[in-house]
Amino acid sequence: MMQTLAVTGGIGSGKSLVCMILAERGFPVYDSDTMTKALYDEDPVLLEAVRQKMLPYSGREAGDMSGFLLDKYGRLDRKALSRIVFPSGVPDTVALRELESVVHPAVLRDFLHWKDSDETAAAARFGTVVIESAIIMDIPMFREAVDMVLLVDAPLETRIRRAMARDGADRESVEARIRSQKCSSFDASGDSGLPDVDFIIENSGTEDELRYKVEQFIDLNYNNRK
């Protein structure tokens, strides 16, 4: 039976690089952020559900759906959505919860369909697929769909600096995004306690050092499944 490894981590932790290395070694990777954006464009039912859920938080009159959250091509206007859910760069927790109530089930259905496809099975060298998600610890329906969780972590200050450099963002907005993610509350440099995960890779060094740690992880846990 195909197993699922979730790779998670806070902003700036390096989880995407870990997933890239896993993909190179024969683990099919489902990038939940990328696939969510694709679903917005490809699933008209999801798009309409998002528009309906967000209307009460838009300042528009009830029922005024004309062009709401649509760009000139009739696709989701992601910048307009972001202004509703993250006003001033800080999440509106109520609006975000409403958005997630329709997006998360759609993404889970898509992931399970992808996982069960013949193409994915043929590419899974170790009988395991990977789902990359920063928020999987917050979502019971996803946590129940995976077999193991790998947390990629680094000291909080390191993550903040990485995210600011990568996104061109100010410190305040990065810190707000970090606070909104449960997996970001664990700080490898502190003593906040171990999170409920199966494996932890600490990523405070170089890319070569991280690659070595991922190779060790594969050797210890998967090389007998080739």
Automatic annotation (TrEMBL):
The keyword rRNA processing does not apply. GO terms for cellular component: cytoplasm. Transmembrane segments: none annotated. The keyword Chaperone does not apply. It is an enzyme of class 2 (transferase). It holds the Pfam family CoaE. Belongs to the CoaE family. This is Dephospho-CoA kinase. GO terms for molecular function: ATP binding; dephospho-CoA kinase activity. InterPro entries: Depp_CoAkinase, P-loop_NTPase. Keywords: ATP-binding, Coenzyme A biosynthesis, Cytoplasm, Kinase, Nucleotide-binding, Transferase. Its EC number is 2.7.1.24. It catalyses: 3'-dephospho-CoA + ATP = ADP + CoA + H(+). It is found in: Cytoplasm. GO terms for biological process: coenzyme A biosynthetic process. CDD domains: DPCK. Catalyzes the phosphorylation of the 3'-hydroxyl group of dephosphocoenzyme A to form coenzyme A. ATP binds at residues 12-17. Pathway: Cofactor biosynthesis; coenzyme A biosynthesis; CoA from (R)-pantothenate: step 5/5. The gene is coaE.
